[in-house]
Amino acid sequence: MTKYIFKRLLSSILVLLGVVTITFFISRVIPSNPATKWAGTRATAEQLAAARAELGLDDPLPVQYVHYLEDLLHGDLGVNYSTKQSVSVELATYVPATLELVLLAFLLAIIIGIPLGIYSAKKKDRLLDHGVRFFSIGAVSLPTFWVALFFQLIFYKLLNILPIGGRVSAMATIFNSMPHVTGLLLLDCLLTGNFTMFRDALLHIILPCITVSLYPIGLVARMTRSALLEILGEDYITAGRSYGLTEFKILWKYALKNSLGATATDVALSMGYTLTNTFLVESIFSWPGIGSYISTAVTTLNFPAIMGVTIFGACSYIILNLLADIIIALDPRIRL
Fold first, then answer.
1. Collapsing DSSP states into helix, strand and coil, what is residue 20?
2. Considering only CA atoms, which of 121, 137, 138 is closest in space to residue 129?
3. Helices (H), the chain
4. pTM value?
5. Per residue of the chain (336 residues), what is the pLDDT tens digit?
6. Contacts of 2 (CB under 8 A, 6+ apart)
């Protein structure tokens, strides 16, 4: 197992280097003038020239690339051209909000998706199975922005039971200080005993969390059903039934355990995708996460911010894919 993980880490480094290289050169060949963002729109020609020299934009692209790699090895992701703040510091500010949203969404997906997939496979070609399949296909097919707007219309405009957006309400921030322990607001509120802020934050995260979780719920349910249908036809399942084992034990202890490999891979990749592609949901719900950060960076051609988010996304994919491979490798049949 150690040798396998070491090989996967080496290949991951090559993948990360490839992502950094491609993104770096693509972002640099786009026609733009970063010096204007650094020096200001009213900067003189001398100030623009000084800004280009300070940012290293006068150097050839290969030289800029080498300098960027040197800074990256020291943990320096560069400086945001607009805010003049370190990209690493800004990512540390924006990532926890997105991470909290995605983690809760995938926890919801596992809690709901796996049971749906199990009982759909158990009731194959019956009414429950057709209902779950219809829901799963709809969950992965509906446009995210449409679902978000629909939820806002129903639960805010018509029913008026949930807030329309934001991470917390203005009233909550006036009378309560936001805790900063882990960056995950709900967890920080519990750790500090701030239950008033916790209730307010929980109400605000419900709609974006459900919106984000719909796709992984449908994915997990479909993958669990497909894997279980294949496993339930195996000889050892038939033998277990002949020995008098309950259907509950067969499903949850034996069949489910052997179906988690394929599901884990798809869930991990889906989580990586969601982690870096929540900008539509975050824009609609005014969620202060990495989605809104990258959308601003792309529209302003802010190279360091774009590179920082790209590296974060690539590392997320690599780590999640590695975890999925380790889960699969725990199966003795895979090792053989």
1. helix
2. 121
3. 2-29, 34-39, 45-55, 61-73, 87-122, 127-141, 144-151, 170-175, 185-192, 195-231, 235-242, 247-249, 256-276, 279-284, 290-299, 303-329, 332-335
4. 0.82
5. 677 777 877 888 888 888 888 888 887 777 777 777 776 667 777 777 887 777 777 778 888 888 888 888 888 888 888 788 888 888 888 989 999 999 999 899 888 988 888 888 888 888 888 888 898 888 888 888 899 999 999 999 899 899 998 888 888 888 778 888 888 889 989 988 888 899 999 999 999 999 999 988 888 888 888 888 888 777 777 787 788 877 777 777 777 777 776 677 777 777 777 776 788 888 889 888 888 888 888 877 788 888 888 888 888 888 888 877 777 776 666 654
6. none
Q: Is 331 helix (H, G, I), strand (E, B) or coil?
A: coil
How many C-beta neighbours within 10 Å does residue 96 have? 20
How many angstroms separate the CA atoms of 31 and 166, rounded? 35
CB proximity list for 226: less than 8 A, separation 6 or greater: 262
In this structure, which amino acid lies at residue 310? T
